[in-house]
Specification:
95 residues
Length: 95
């Protein structure tokens, strides 16, 4: 609930459309997911987990991150959405 309220506040403050705000939120959550996963691997926490799948699911739950999006990150199917939005914003396109 807090995340949704914060996202709506940012949308209002910066005049973002729903699609822009969601893309930014996804980009930030993806970066946090990668950073936390990297840290867990570096600390050996991931290797010590009884189940890597359960560990990843728990991480997704903690971040309110769609497991399908996490899977796409691991498969290399995602790109950095913000950079595309910034280019479109500069060009004057509206989402």
């Amino acid at each position: 609930m807090f995340q949704l309220a914060a996202l709506n506040q940012l949308r209002n403050i910066f005049g973002l459309g729903k699609r822009e705000a969601e893309a930014i939120s996804l980009d930030i959550t993806s970066k946090v997911y990668r950073k936390q996963l990297s840290q867990a691997a570096a600390d050996g926490e991931l290797d010590m987990a009884d189940s890597k799948a359960a560990f990843l699911q728990n991480l997704c739950d903690q971040l309110h991150f769609d497991p399908q999006k996490a899977s796409e990150l691991h498969e290399g199917k995602t790109h950095h959405v913000c950079s595309y939005l910034e280019v479109d914003y500069i060009r004057g396109l509206d989402y």
